Amino acid sequence: MVSRTGKKEISKTMTMNDHITQFLHYLSVKNFSPRTIEAYQHDLSKFVEFLESLNRANVKTVSRDDIGLFLSHLKNEGYKKPNSAITMARKIASIKSFFKWLTRRKVLKENPAIDIETPKIPEREPSYLTQEEYQRLLATVKFKATPYYCLRDLAIVGMFLGTGVRLSELVGLKLENINLQESQESICVRGKGNKERTIPLNANVLNALATYLKKRPEVESKFLFLSRLGDGLSTGGVYHLIKRYLKEADIKKEKVGVHSLRHTFATSLLNNQNVNIIHIQQLLGHKKLETTRRYLHINDLDLRNAVNSLVLTKK
């Protein structure tokens, strides 16, 4: 539809779902990860469903109170298990980003979500494995898996423990991302914000990887790690694979999972006094140094011992 001025009257005829589709396209153009875009899509679709149940699914008339009602609904109604602070924070972030985008595009004059507060997320110390635990994990993979899957899964676990890659980064690895040239052995991963980083490979990872590659089927798929059908692995598949091995290895820790292996990599490096925390930040692909600091596992006794070790005057 075109007005007398010749301008397209887009916002007057578009539904909220139409705006969400454009918003998700914008995120894709800005190189947000598919996983992040999927989360935004899920959160915003639930928001629209709720507004439709109240007959208020009009982007022009959504109010702060409507958003507040939706958040109350998430906490109290229709959910067997209440949403955690982390989940609530993500859903609020999705809504705030969407309305901020609408305001910037002049679809809305005022942002109804601008004053919505994000719940404070309790900071948990990252869960990581001790040397005995990750040795037990590797032994479990060797014992439990069939010959081919043993080689693949040992390479996967070794990659997590030896490079600290994220789950999405590992399943996205392709053969072209592997550099096995002598003295330059490394992988190139695409992390958050579509940023690339190079991670060196140590002897243990190289050995596991080389052994797997010798037995890797010759298929069209260019992904490094293959499923039973010969295509790339899914994040869900690897997530459940690692959870199963951790359970079979009898590693019982709170929130232990794939991310614990990444934490183990970071913690092992930090325990090496010769490794600079800035280097670890780069290897992990952390945007903020504060995120890397969480792996220090400093307690009150460590702080007291550090202070007591200072020698300021000669005896």
UniProtKB/TrEMBL annotation:
Protein's GO biological process: DNA integration; DNA recombination
Family named by the database record: Belongs to the 'phage' integrase family.
GO molecular function: DNA binding
Organism of origin: Candidatus Brennerbacteria bacterium RIFOXYD1_FULL_41_16
Keywords: DNA integration, DNA recombination, DNA-binding
Pfam annotation, one family: Phage_integrase
NCBIfam families per record: recomb_XerA_Arch
Protein name: Tyrosine recombinase XerC
Domain Tyr recombinase residue range list: 124-308
Domain Core-binding (CB): 14-103
InterPro entries named in the record: CB, DNA_brk_join_enz, Integrase-like_cat_sf, Integrase_catalytic, Integrase_recombinase_N, Integrase_SAM-like_N, Tyrosine_recombinase_XerCD
